[in-house]
Amino acid sequence: MKEGLTEKVQIMVAPRLIEQIDDWRFANRVSSRSRAMRKLLTMALGNEEAKGPAEAATSPSHVTHQPG
Prior knowledge:
globular
C-alpha cells in the first residue's frame, strides 16, 4: 500500500463519518486516520489485502470450507 504516496486529497465529511472511521481504525489497530482511510478506500474498491483483522475474519474470501 506504500506505493509512492505523492497525491494529496482533501474532502469534507460529516462528523459521524469521522467517528465511524476512527472506530474502525481503533478496532483494526491502524496507526493513523490517514492510513485507515487509505485502507478503507482500497477495501471499498475490492482489494482484499487492505482488510484489517476484524474484517478479514468475516470476509467470504477468507472463510475456509470443510470438505464433506
